[in-house]
Amino acid sequence: MLTIKNLHACVEQKNILNGLNLNIKPGEVHAIMGPNGAGKSTLGYVLSGREGYEVLDGQVDFQGHNLLEMTIEERARKGLFLAFQYPIEIPGVSNMEFMKESVNAMRQHRGEERLTAAEFLKKAKEICKQVQLPLDFLKRGVNEGFSGGEKKRNEIMQMILLEPSLCILDESDSGLDVDALQIVANGVNSQRDGKRSFIVITHYQRLLDYIEPDFVHILANGKVVKTGDASLAKQVEKEGYAFLGLDNSEEVTA
Amino acid sequence: MTTQIDQALSRTYDAGFISDIESETFAVGLNEDVIRRISAMKNEPEWMIEWRLRAYRNWLTMEEPEWAHVQYPKIDFQAISYYSAPKSMKDKPKSLDEVDPELLRVYEKLGIPLYEQEMLAGVAVDVVFDSVSVVTTFREKLKEAGVIFCPISEAIQTYPELVKKYLGSVVPRSDNYFAALNSAVFTDGSFVYIPKGVRCPMELSTYFRINEQNTGQFERTLIIADEGSFVSYLEGCTAPQRDENQLHAAVVELVAMDDAQIKYSTVQNWYPGDENGKGGIYNFVTKRGICHTNAKVSWTQVETGSAITWKYPSCVLKGDNSIGEFYSVALTRGRQQADTGTKMIHLGKNTKSTIISKGISAGHSNNTYRGLVHMGSKADGARNFTQCDSLLIGDLCGAHTFPYIESRNPTAKVEHEATTSKVGDDQLFLCQQRGLDAEKAVSMIVNGFCKEVFKELPMEFAVEAGKLLEISLEGSVG
Amino acid sequence: MTWLQQVIHRGQAMNDWLSPVRSQALEALRNTTWPTRRTESWKYTSLAALEQLKLTATEPATQPSIDAIAGLNSLDLVFINGELQTDVNSLSLPAGLHINNLQSASAVQRVIATSMFAQIKPKRHLFGLVNDALANDVLFIDIDNGSHIVQPIRIVSLSTDGHESHHRVLVRIGNEAKASIIEQTQGEHTSLSTGFTEFDLGQQAYLEHYRLAMHTHQAIYFGGCHFCLHHNAELNSTFIGYGSQLSRTDIDIIHNGEHAKAKLNAVYLLGESEHINLHSTIEHAKPHGTTEENVRGIVGDKASAVFNGRIHIHRGAQKTQAALNNRNLLLSRRGQINTKPELEIYADDVQCAHGATVAEITDEALYYLRSRGISRSQALVMLNFGFIQELINQMPNQQLAKWLEPQLRARFKEMEVR
Ligand SMILES: Nc1ncnc2c1ncn2[C@@H]1O[C@H](COP(=O)(O)OP(=O)(O)O)[C@@H](O)[C@H]1O
Ligand SMILES: [Mg+2]
Fold first, then answer.
1. In angstroms, rounded to a whole number, what is the distance separating the alpha carbons of residues C196 and B82?
2. Residue B449, strand partner residues
3. Which of B122, B164, B216, C292 is most buried per CB count within 10 Å?
4. Which of B360, B407, B425 to mutate to test the interface with C (most CBs of C within 10 A)?
């Protein structure tokens, strides 16, 4: 699904990713943990092609394509989805219009017919129910005046709607109450079909209680410093990152 | 409560005394002959006379601007004397010891004890009294660093190449009506040159004083900061209390070469006239700086004086990545009228400008912010942020905001905000309830309102500015 | 003869019951100095196109027809080239609503009309004076005290190729009366039109108002909406303007009674080498008034927009609350935006603020849309539309908004996005 080799990237002349490697097969769930500022969000941005994030070195293969050569929308249409840590507000553009256009962009890419307004609405309503957002959210501006939890659920809603092949969830659990956490987790689990892969960026074991990861990676100073199974997350939860002996640029080999 | 504030915005102007200094003053009137005589008094070379005369001829064809939000009777330019100098200046003093003690006393009275400034504050001072520079301190020490700081009349003699190259390069002779007049008749002012890579070792400052009756003051300041240099320059002004209006039409030109920085601070306290609007200085000033690549020009002004203020310290951001700043507090009271602001002309890529303007109106005064932000078609990625706040004290004054925004570049970004408020009764009540008297409370609130600007002033000046505001507001509350 | 001299010449020949009031305008025009770029209110707008204008009227192959707006059920009044086409005598009007024109007005209505004509519209508008002098026809809408006219009144003014037209509307809304008025002006090809409307809102009256100035590129248009608000009156007005070769609209709102409320939303959308000049002036002459004004513009290609938004708080107009917000998007390197929000304040116990920005669509928003698979160009159209959609959504008449939406979308497609 996704192979990252020796990825180096910088923002505003600051090196953030420093030789990151990651290999994800179809159907796998990878959790990424790591201290604040480690470069977790940056990884998501680089993979999705955000401007201002410059790749200095390395290769990324996504389903047999050179990911780094594609535009933002090509990556999305090929099935890469990023649920934002801080979803962006766009007043004036309705959530409905936004999602309809994106669904249809995906469909067009796959050579399918555009959904009619009615078909789309039916689908959108179902998912609204699933993530427990009231219907009038569809009419409001994209993320405009949404609470933190509502924004995160809106991201999950888009994920379900767009049916991507690789989902990157950037702290989709941060700032959620227990109920909202379950909604997000259930949303994710409903999409697990053995083919779709997930990268789950999180600080908390509690999300991983719901979404069992196949691998857990610790990201620090822009690279993966330790990889393990689900138990690694539990250890982090208990002991913090201290046991890794991380300070500044020290590298820990597993 | 508001009537309390309204009451007696009258106060005495501390700097309003008249000094009995024997002067040599031209008869009133303006013609080519007068200009030749000014030039002769200064022993100027031929090119300078030519320059002045061309400015004068230009001026004759120009019209006095009327767009400003100020009203005043037509100025009779033939009723003004264009030159006045203390007699004792015939043989120019070389140091403070040689300065007429009477003059020194004047400055002491103004709170600018020159000796002290020299000894304690470590600030180099150029003092301009009516039409001439009377003394410049610390020149030797500055010379060691390669810094030139002298009266412009002297620079014309000593550094003609520099003057020729830069005089009128930022504010052209016929830039506007008052600049043209100044170019024709300017008498003195300061000249500063900071060589490449030099950080000027001390603050430079000029004090301007109008003393003689019926005289105008037309000073000209030229500051050149060569590549990578830095200078901080302070300017203060006072004038005696007289019943008739006096004209002050200055020009200040700043040249910031690549990577250079100029910080220019003004505390303007010309005589504002009495509470009925009688007398006071007409202050028509053109100030402009040009910024080359990576350069920065920062204007900070505290304007409390003058009957009329017409002043727009501006920045031409010509070089890429250059920065312009304008921080202003303008306080008007009595019958004062101020129309002041700035122009930020963004020409280079990634140029940035910040404008913070605080206007305080009291009494029957009118206080106007007028500004221009221009984003040229090549100013890719340029940014401007402007914040204009007005505070009204009493219901007989006016506060106005006229910002012009022109954008020609889709990647440039301009943000302008303006608000108006008054000293709230509840704010006053709170302060009084905590034991402050109303007057102190108002001055506290006003000071708070101006904080963003005061923090840009050099230490000594910030204190002075704060005091000035306090005095200005004295008696403003019952 | 200059253009202005011709206007005066033609104005002198007008002979109807408005002649006494027209002659005042002619007098003012005689004393007018023709504006240049040095004239403050024309600083960014050249009148060269008008000075050089040569009109050759061509008769349209088919009589232009004005389509009804679906679902709006409006009472339509149509001017073509300045002549009122609707027979006002044959209209079946709800009780309390009276509509007349130059010919049909009764003696009493003539008195009311002459007392309103050119009274609310400030004398400083040059082309307002031209309209005073030359208005071919005058529509006079009078609503009785206490009448709530539910049916929207739609006034369409169309200028066809080669024509010059001047239409005028006077609207009096009685005390406690309510009305909804839509003014739609369209100019085709090379045409010159002026259209000025004066509104008098009685005590506690409510007016919902729309001015849609949708001209095509070659048209020259000078328009004005002038509102006088009495005690407790409320105005909710929306302006939508396309640019054209030369286009200027002046909106004046005068708070002439205490506790009046005004909301003004304005949008301008420009492409090609169109120009628009929009001036709004809010006069708070009485205390306790509120004004909320939102103006947004998008300028593409070689177009240029000028906005001047003045708020003037008169001495004694205490407790006024007035806010103006102007936001602009400049899409092209060849375009221009000139904006000047102005505050002039003579009362201390007021809350006033204005803000103006010129920017481009944020990269962040663009990225978000693209990360969901939407193409860059499509995302830009969506974001641009979203920028003005916020104001369109605030239109009280959503039926009208629905009709407008596809037209605005089509307009965006025309507005060459970088
Ligand atoms: N636009 C930016 N400009 C400068 N530094 C940035 C920018 N974005 C992120 N960074 C820096 O990059 C580092 C990694 O950030 P991020 O990827 O958000 O970390 P994480 O998500 O792991 O907390 C941090 O030190 C952050 O401050
Ligand atoms: Mg993060």
1. 54
2. none
3. B216
4. B407
- The whole model's pTM is what? 0.86
**Tens of pLDDT along A73-83?**
899 999 999 99
Chains A and C: how many Cβ contacts under 8 Å? 79
Q: How confident is the model at residue C166 (pLDDT cuts 50, 70, 90)?
A: very high
Q: What is the mean pLDDT of chain B?
A: 83
A52 Cα nearest atom in ligand 1 = 1
Planar angle of CA A37, A38, A43, nearest 5 degrees: 105
Confidence grade of residue C212 (pLDDT, cut at 50, 70, 90) = very high
- Which residue owns the Cα nearest ligand 1 atom 17? A39
C386 and A106: CB-CB below 8 Å? Answer: no
Q: At what angle do helices B32-41 and B46-61 cross, to 10 degrees?
A: 150
Q: What number is the ipTM of this complex?
A: 0.92
The one-letter amino acid at A28: E
Beta strand ranges found along C41-93 (DSSP E): 75-80, 83-84
| A192 Cα distance to chain centroid | 14
Do the domain assignments include residue C6?
no
Compare A51 and C266 and report the one with higher pLDDT.
C266
pLDDT at B119 over 60: no
Q: How far apart are CA B417 and CA C325, in angstroms?
A: 9
Q: Identify whether the C-beta of residue A203 lies closer than 8 Å to the C-beta of residue A233.
A: no
The answer on pLDDT for C24 being more than 60 is: yes
Residue C8 lies in a domain: no
Into how many domains does chain C fold? 1
Gap between the Cα atoms of B307 and B6, Å rounded: 19
Across A36-45, A220-229, A244-253, least confident range: A244-253
Contact B405 C358 (CB under 8 A): yes
Residue C31 lies in a domain: no
Residue A152 one-letter amino acid: K
Chains in contact with C, counting 3 or more C-beta pairs less than 8 Å apart as contact: A, B
Rounded (10°) angle between helices A178-190 and A148-162: 10
Residue B6: its pLDDT value, please? 43
In this predicted structure, what is the pLDDT of residue A250?
42
**Cα distance between residue A188 and residue A212, in whole Å:** 11
Name the 3-class secondary structure at C46. coil
Does residue C280 sit within a domain?
yes
Residue with token string 């006033």: C352
Q: What value, to the nearest 5°, has the Cα angle with vertex B80 and ends B78 and B81?
A: 115
